[in-house]
Amino acid sequence: MGEMRIAIAGAGSVGRSIATELAGSGHDVLLIDRDTRAIGVDDLPQVEWLLADACELATLEDARLGGFDVVIAASSDDKVNLVVSLLAKNEFGVDRVIARINDPENEWLFNESWGVDLAVSPPRLIADLVEGAPEEGLDQEGALPPLPGAEIAESVLHAESPFAGGPESGLAGSLPEGVALVAVVGPGGVRPPAPERTLSVGDTVVFLAEPEALGTLEALMAPPDEDL
Fold first, then answer.
1. Contact (CB, 8 A) for 223 and 197
2. Within 13 A of 218's CA, how many CA atoms are on the CB side?
3. What global pTM score does this model have?
């Protein structure tokens, strides 16, 4: 896959994580957010920023959205993500529009009538990964299979874990190369990564890992008295 021009609406933890991964893979990434608190140019030097409301047609015209290969609506507000998707597809003819679903009850709205080519729901994604992803491509509900060459791994935080009681950023910063934290399952259900959140004993952390990194990951997460 060659270099793509990708616009991401929403510079929260999800949008920024996506931007980091895509920019690191050599793609040209633009982050759009109207909240100045979300803007951290120094944190993501490879990413272009636009401080504006992604729901405004004028903003997307200024960004020249029609020149992008992919638009990702990644905000924490489903209404925003639907509007961005509709404008990207209908007004600018973007080939590939991907939208994040925050509330599973809104899932039925995220379809081609709103300009959405692929809708990603973190709760559904994790459920599909646990129950078994589709063998070929995407299913009708927009579930994503594991990435080629990567495996899903999970671990329950034990009482002796150095990460229990600390921020999620402490775990994310300690992960070996080739491993990414993709979800945390706790009493409140499944949630996407949120570096500022505190991890608790009993939380299940879900990773996407390259096969060669699994041994290092298991050693990192295992109880100290477990014989590896």
1. no
2. 12
3. 0.58
